[in-house]
Design goal:
Blueprint lengths: L1 H22 L4 H18 L13
Helix pairs in contact: 1-2
Length: 58
């Protein structure tokens, strides 16, 4: 599950924008910036669980 947290967090940012934009909260800016910051930090944190790529020299 931790492997999928990075892509999920980064793909959730546009979804958050759509949801908040369509619902029309009066605090749009605060919700956008806070949500984006939290999702970006979570996505960056979980990059350490991504598999290492082995380089093959042919």
């Amino acid at each position: 599950m931790k492997l999928w947290m990075t892509p999920i967090c980064f793909l959730a940012i546009p979804v958050l924008y759509l949801i908040v934009g369509f619902l029309g909260f009066p605090q749009n800016g605060i919700i956008f910036w806070t949500g984006t910051a939290v999702l970006t930090l979570l996505g960056a944190y979980f990059t350490k669980h991504l598999p290492e790529v082995e380089e093959s020299y042919s």
